[in-house]
Automatic annotation (TrEMBL):
InterPro entries: NAD(P)-bd_dom_sf, ODC_Mu_crystall, ODC_N. Its EC number is 4.3.1.12. This is Ornithine cyclodeaminase. Pfam families: OCD_Mu_crystall (PF02423). GO terms for molecular function: ornithine cyclodeaminase activity. Gene3D superfamilies: NAD(P)-binding Rossmann-like Domain, ornithine cyclodeaminase, domain 1. It comes from the Bacteria. Belongs to the ornithine cyclodeaminase/mu-crystallin family. Keywords: Lyase, NAD, Plasmid. It is an enzyme of class 4 (lyase).
Amino acid sequence: MTIDQKLNVVPFISVDHMMKLVLKVGIDTFLIELAATIEEDFRRWPAFDKTPRVASHSHEGVIELMPTSDGTLYGFKYVNGHPKNTRQGRQTVTAFGVLSDVGNGYPMLLSEMTILTALRTAATSAVAAKFLARSGSRTMAIIGNGAQSEFQARAFKALLGTDKLRLFDIDPSATRKCARNLEGLGFTIVECGSVEEAVEGADIVTTVTADKQYATILSDNHVGPGVHINAVGGDCPGKTELSKDILLRSDIFVEYPPQTRIEGEIQQLPSDHAVTEVWQVITGEAVGRRNDGQITLFDSVGFAIEDFSALRYVRAKIAELNMFEELDLLADPDDPRDLYGMLLRCEKKLSAV
């Protein structure tokens, strides 16, 4: 059976299926192919509906919906961000997503997106760095060694050949965890005791912390000429990681300005501060890195088109590998106008038992 044969069945990718799918494809291959799909969709950016994500903020965290459509397919992601969760043995970020057919409105895929979001975030970071970092960048500092750190390391190595890591987290056990998880994968890893030590000699600095607050994880004196900054952790109002002075020295690249100005590092700057959209650099409509001394900053908050790309990629993969469950999600009466009759028939079957 293919995934298109039953009208009432929606392919469902559980966490178990997602893990097995990623491992069947291979983590590096998955990241490379996912990055290619993301880049492909960035190249047709104007074709998509775009809106800042719909967010419900509380003191404890945020719950968001992230929708988009290219006119043929529609996708959305439900995602939360609750930094306190780790203290309760829960994930800071969890997510699921849906991909639908615009022509009839039927869902075509329901998928876990906690693991998939980690993969798509890392793949998007590497795609941006491919166009913004100095050629031959081999050394990356990762500030914040939580759930996203290994994915970032794997994506940058797979796409850019970045194989020297300098790790720092305020929790040394997180750094040890990250280093342990990446053992034997061709990295040279240095576990650092401070941000200053971590950024020493780094071509790329990735900040990926979780605290929901204005913070200065990276100070101006931490950033020398030519560095590419991959700012991942600042992703909601009131949460930043970089000193404002760094922003004023950098050329800033973003996904979707109306969203990033609310949620990203640039919420610290005037609303008319010049930024460049990454898709324009990828298509050649704008200049990215001009010289080796330029500081480039990817102010990454995550955008719905990246999730759309991830769902599109996964659907193609499960069709190829037949890795999904059948979810009885859609009512399919014999007569589309007789939904009540479908309920009556079910009642008769129950009465006959």
